[in-house]
Structure formats: C-alpha cells, structure tokens
Design goal:
- There is one protein chain.
- The protein is an alpha+beta fold.
- A hairpin with an 8-residue loop joins strand 2 and strand 3.
- It contains three helices and four strands, in the order ββββααα.
- The chain has a four-stranded antiparallel sheet.
C-alpha cells in the first residue's frame, strides 16, 4: 500500500494520531498550546490523514526541515543530518 509523508501534531491527549505509522520526526515549535505545540513529520498510508499537509518530494522535506535542524536536534554533522532525512524519506518508499 502506498505511503506518504505528512506534517501533523499530537492529538489533544498528547498522542500521535492512530493513522501515523511512524512519526515524531523533525519537531518544529508552532504557536498552538501544548500538547499540540510542535509540528512533526510522519508517515501514513495514502488515503489517511487527508486533512494534513503532504510533503511530496525529498526536496520539500529538506526545505521544510531546514539546516537549522542541524543545531536544534544535535546532529553532529551535515552527513548525520542528511542520513536522518534519507531515513525518513525511505519510510515512504518501504
């Protein structure tokens, strides 16, 4: 079954939505109150989470995450950061 990468937030109980297969990647602070105060990147099946913003290309993922993630997520090098991006992108293809 085809998968897609989406941006999402936790539900009101602080849990990931049930349709997210693998998530919690690249948290980015937003203006919502806790527990929905971070946007997260995750993977779900096509046809689920249709209300969410889909990240359709690897370039979109790189643009969304941005190089600032290198510092805020304690990646020790650009290579480690690149590996993390590749790992999330591969979840869509697996």
């Amino acid at each position: 079954m085809p998968k897609k990468i989406v941006k999402y937030t936790l539900d009101l109980d602080g849990k990931k939505p049930s349709f997210i297969l693998d998530g919690g990647h690249f948290p980015q602070k937003n203006s919502s109150p806790p527990p929905q105060d971070f946007d997260l990147v995750g993977v779900c099946f096509v046809g689920e989470g249709d209300h969410l913003v889909e990240i359709e290309t690897k370039q979109e993922l790189e643009d969304y995450v941005g190089l600032s993630t290198l510092d805020t997520h304690n990646y020790s090098s650009a290579s480690e950061y690149s590996d993390a991006l590749d790992s999330v992108w591969m979840l869509k293809l697996s």
